[in-house]
Structures are given as C-alpha cells and as structure tokens.
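Changelog entry: the Orotidine 5'-phosphate decarboxylase record was regenerated in this release. Current contents:
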Amino acid sequence: MKENIYDVAKNKLIFALDVPDLNTAKKWLRLLSTKVGCFKIGLQLFLEAGTQVIKIVKETTGNKVFLDLKLHDIPSTVLAACHQLQKYQVDFLSVFPPCYPHLFSEFQTGPTKIIGVTVLTYLDTPSLLALGIKEEFAYNPIKLVLRRAQLAKEAGCKGIVCSGQEVKQVKNLLGQEFIAITPGIRLKGNQAYDQKRITTPYEAIKNGSDYLVVGRIIRLAPKPEQVIERILEEISLALRPNQV
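Regenerated structure tokens:
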C-alpha cells in the first residue's frame, strides 16, 4: 500500500532528544513517537543513560535511532567503536570522516548507516577562520562541505550531515542516493539560537535533504504538537510535485 504524503513527511523528521535524563526522554517518546520517524540521541543523553536509551527507543516506539556521537579519533579506534555500537541496531551513527578510503566499507550492507559530519551548522566564516581553516574554504563553506562530503563517501559513509544550504550541491556531486541529514532547521520567525547556516523545512527538503533534525524549536515551544504540525506541513508541501 502506497504511503500518503503525511507519512512520508513524518518519516523524514528526526527529533533531537537533547535532554538531560531518561525520564525527560521518555516523556518526549510518548508525545512524539507517532509524529516523527526517528529519534536522535546525542552526547548529553548518551552520557547520562548509556546504551539503554537506544533499547528503550527501539522497544517502546519502533522508531529509527540516530546515534549522534560524532566519533573522532584514529581510524582503528573509530572503526572499533562503530562495530561496538552496531550491536545495538542503531540506524544512523555519526562520525567525523577520516582521510582513510574504504574504512567503513563493511557497513555498506549492515543495519547501521555511517554518516559523516561535514561542517557543523553553528560555524560561519569568522568561526572557520578562527579555527585555522584556509581562506578559500572559510569564505566559501560550501566548498569545505563538498570536500568533506567527498572524503566521507570515499571512507564508505552512506551519507553526511550538512545544512540545507549545501545539500543541493552535495547531491549534484555525489548522487541522489547519498543520504543528507540536515540540522539547523527553523520555521520563519524562530530564533536561530547558536545556529548560523539555517534553512526552513520547506527549503531543506526542496533542496534535497532526506532527513531533518529538529530539537529546540519543538522542545521549547509552549505547544510542541503545533510546531510539529507546521514542520510536517512544510515538508509535505515541498514533497508535492510542481511546487516552486
């Protein structure tokens, strides 16, 4: 049976469980398990609850899990960590892609998709310059994203994390099947917080993003369900054919 457009939109939405403890996470799981397709577990919650939170999400909701730990170390250490975490059947696992071709090739057909982080969405030109990034990349962050996306694909990653501003160029370079997960999502009128390279849900999906990560604008809203509905409406609109 063909999915309706609302279900397709829901499955593209990842809710960021950036909360301090398991009880708070469970509250959001109860509230949103039928409204999003995936839950992101980041450093804060993982350090508090450990791998049990992965099991809880899987068993109580059936939703996908994006374990966003941004693993970064020497290749052998990162690879060992990926093998360890794959045992918990996470659907997506983020790493900083190394200059090491085919490192993750054995994950190509497994249950866990390795996702390379390109340039964090809080970074802009002044921040990149301060970090010592070459001017040719700092003044043109898209160029840096494309370079790191290429490294991610060469390393065997199934996709990358990038802003909605860069996803169209990534898809053009690396193919439509290369997964793009996009944070830095804001509805019009939302506060940007510490994010710099932001897009609306409509813009990101129209540009080619496969999944959108949304956290604060839902968590901090007086009526989170209303924000979710607005996001899903924008995703659905972008998915309809002949939309400009």
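Residues 142 and 166 are 6 Å apart (CA to CA).
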